[in-house]
Specification:
This protein is of the alpha/beta class. It has two domains: 278 residues, Aldehyde Dehydrogenase, Chain A, domain 1; 184 residues, 3-Layer(aba) Sandwich (Aldehyde Dehydrogenase, Chain A, domain 2), CATH 3.40.309. Helices cover 39% and strands 22% of the residues. The longest helix is centred in the N-terminal third of the chain and has 25 residues. It starts with a strand and ends in a 6-residue tail after the last strand.
């Protein structure tokens, strides 16, 4: 009986957990509504608890020996099958993800959902291509083995649930670790589709488990389970501190990709049109992007010209239904988040910061219960003000000017965050100097959001712990063993 399934944008989606290869309900549920129009109720979703968490880890633990015993190539066959299943369902997944968290449908269909298949293939192939380190030392033959670690708990945020779920579970599975995936309660539905596709692709029961619910309930129980071998989290620094404490009690390796307050530096020798276009693009997904360059730092000699070009690009933005190809700025995820964003702007006004443009909620024709906020630019009265120092995670940028390269770098590095930075300059020497000096895990020069899946990704300061991407993620999900054999002591 499929009474646990609902229709979302024409696609059947299970509202139950996925544990050990089967769907499991919970006595309690939580409501999921669409940010496209808050009057649109999508589903009542099973609300996990400590018992659900225990059952999920039970399933992963039971699946671990057989999954770990497979070779990387054998695990890779499973991951490629799952990638193929994703490719065949891109359109349906994009429709559900758009309804659930309101990212622009065009981006989801063309780029974001296909990236899930690319994540799986990339890590499957990287694991197969891995070469063990071998050497001779003091009369012994040495090898470094990369061994599966055990069940991995993966906790993903609401702003990019599909992309980040596949980005995180792919290296864990490729390394030999069964996964318990806990999606954010504000946008859990694409994770449920992923479980369906895993079953369709023949992934062994218990290798991928999906648990829905609130962080303080099921999430806390998952990360506290002593059988969990790895924890990977993307979200806020506040939540990461709680998860880190639980991981520390069990001495479990923990990686966290957290918030950002990225600088976007524009020097006097920059291509101002490209810089302004990129700056206006930071309003993409209503600014709900941790990598966004939200602090515009512009050389005083080109400040006015840059802003004129920037405003022209922002004027061309269209707030609207994310399914409409004409829309360039989507709604915010949830009424509570809309209140949070508005609160930042209200407090900035009260602190004496100047709202250059925007600064209020927006109405969109045809949307009865919208969650829109105008693209906003604020000129802070001081660099230590909250609007400069804290992540808003909405369509709110600040703009400041600088006179020298040293001042620009000082401003860029003046927050506790260090996830990303963007630099626009025509000088190769300056690109090298400033790129090195900006304190961030990723710095783009004269471009933005170009990602190589083999590159390390993560943040400094309160923007994160550890690195994901490529071999870095595979090493995180492994136990490294040095095997030493006395040379000449064994025979073939």
């Amino acid at each position: 009986m499929d009474d646990h399934r609902v229709q979302v944008a024409g696609t059947s989606v299970s509202t139950w957990h996925y544990l050990g290869g089967r769907r499991v309900g919970s006595p309690a549920t939580f409501e999921v509504r669409s940010p496209l129009d808050w009057s649109w109720k999508l589903a009542d979703v099973a609300r996990g608890d400590a018992d659900t968490a225990r059952a999920a880890v039970d399933a992963a633990q039971a699946a671990f020996p057989a999954w770990a015993a497979l070779t990387p190539a054998e695990r890779g066959v499973h991951l490629h099958r799952l990638a193929d299943a994703i490719d065949a369902e891109v359109a349906r997944i994009a429709e559900v993800e758009c309804a659930d968290m309101a990212m622009l449908h065009a981006s989801l269909h063309a780029r974001v959902i296909p990236r899930g298949a690319a994540n799986l293939r990339n890590y499957a192939d990287l694991a197969v291509a891995h070469e063990e380190r071998t050497w001779s030392s003091k009369g012994t033959a040495n090898r470094v083995l990369r061994m599966p670690a055990g069940p991995a708990v993966i906790i993903t945020p609401w702003n990019a649930p599909w992309l980040l779920s596949t980005w995180k579970l792919a290296p864990a599975l490729a390394a030999g670790n069964p996964v318990v995936l806990k999606p954010a309660e504000w946008a859990p539905l694409s994770a449920s589709l992923l479980a369906d596709l895993a079953e369709q692709a023949g992934l062994p029961p218990g290798v991928l488990n999906v648990v829905q619910g609130r962080g303080e309930e099921v999430g806390a129980a998952l990360v506290a389970d002593p059988r969990v071998a790895r924890i990977s989290f993307t979200g806020s620094p506040e939540a990461a501190r709680h998860i880190g404490q639980a991981a520390a009690r069990n001495l479990v390796p923990f990686t966290a990709e957290l918030g950002g307050k990225g600088p976007l530096l524009v020097f006097e020798d920059a291509d101002l049109e490209a810089a302004a276009r990129t700056a206006a693009g930071q309003y993409d997904d209503s600014g709900q992007v941790c990598l966004a360059g939200t602090r515009l730092l512009v050389h005083e000699a080109v400040h006015e010209e840059f802003l004129a070009r920037f405003h022209a690009h922002v004027d061309a933005h269209v707030l609207g239904d994310s399914r409409d190809p004409a829309t360039t700025i989507s709604p915010l995820i949830h009424p509570a988040h809309l209140e949070r964003v508005a609160g930042f702007v209200d407090r900035a006004r009260a602190a004496g910061d100047r709202v250059v443009r925007g600064g209020q909620r927006a109405e969109v024709a045809g949307v009865s219960d919208g969650l829109f906020y105008e693209p906003t630019l604020i000129e802070p009265a001081a660099n230590d003000h909250e609007i400069v120092q804290r992540e808003v995670f909405g369509p709110v940028l600040t703009v400041q000017s600088f006179a020298t390269e040293q001042e620009a770098i000082a401003l860029a590095n003046s927050t506790a965050y260090g996830l990303s930075g963007i630099v626009f300059t025509g000088s190769a020497q300056r690109a090298e100097r400033v790129g090195r000096a900006v304190r961030a895990g990723t710095v783009w020069v004269n471009t933005f959001l170009v990602r190589d899946l083999t590159a390390p990704f993560g943040g400094m300061g309160i923007s994160g712990i550890g690195r994901e991407g490529g071999e870095f993620a595979l090493e995180f999900h492994a136990e490294l063993k040095t095997l030493q054999i006395l040379e000449g002591s064994t025979r073939t």
